[in-house]
């Protein structure tokens, strides 16, 4: 019976016929998956490629793999999709990151807004990046979703973009998301506010900067639910 192919991430670019997996990935391979010499693995390094490998050696804290072949596998959306969001607290932030990866978001920008709880404990950038890796392993993406450092709402909204960029911000009273027109093939930027929503001043800033306000429906949604509804409405 053939060995089931499993995915792991290499933090170093795969450029040789051998690759050494270290750190958390090696621990997972050795102590969770319990790989052995001869097992097959699919490795990705964030470059967009994936590599079919075989376990050559299992060491105390490292796994040495032999690279057998390289595959060009593109599982990305045909357009750039960026999400600016006031991150929710606790495990909800992990859930949001995982679903953004699965749905093809290219770049996630955590936002600080007027009603965002700045005192609440937040996951570190390193931890969020780890969530991206785990979700990419699960869903098969070979390019890692970028996660930026905390950015102010004004900086995000007013940052310059290409002429054909579609920019949508979720807020009650806007056009229904089902009727929103997206420029085909161009970059898409989406913005979701905190649990308290956006202030009227923030919405005014967005509209002056060319953002279109979209309404996600009559019910009040949590941050992560609103983000997924907006992403899904755009990507289909």
Q: How would you characterize the largest beta sheet?
A: 7 strands, parallel
Instruction: Tell me the structural class.
Output: alpha/beta
What's the rounded overall pLDDT mean? 91
Question: Uncertain segments of ≥5 residues (pLDDT<50)?
Answer: none
Helix-strand sequence: EEHEEEEHEHEEHEEHEH
Based on DSSP secondary structure assignment, what is the total number of beta strands? 12
N- to C-terminal distance: 38 Å
Strand portion: 25-35%
Number of helices: 6
Looking at the structure, what is the overall shape? elongated
Percent range of helical residues: 25-40%
Radius of gyration: 20 Å
Features:
236 residues, alpha/beta, seven-stranded parallel beta sheet, five-stranded mixed beta sheet, 6 helices, 12 strands, 29% strand
What does this structure look like?
The protein contains six helices and twelve strands. The protein has helices at residues 23-32, 91-103, 125-139, 153-158, 200-208, 223-235, and strands at residues 6-9, 18-21, 40-44, 49-58, 63-72, 81-85, 107-112, 146-147, 151-152, 166-176, 188-192, 212-215. The chain is elongated. The longest helix is centred in the middle third of the chain and has 15 residues, at 125-139. The model has no long low-confidence stretch (mean pLDDT 91). Helix 2 (91-103) crosses helix 3 and helix 2 runs parallel beside helix 6. The strands form two sheets. Strands 6, 7, 8, 9, 10, 11 and 12 form a seven-stranded parallel sheet that branches. The protein has 236 residues and is α/β, with parallel strands linked by helices.
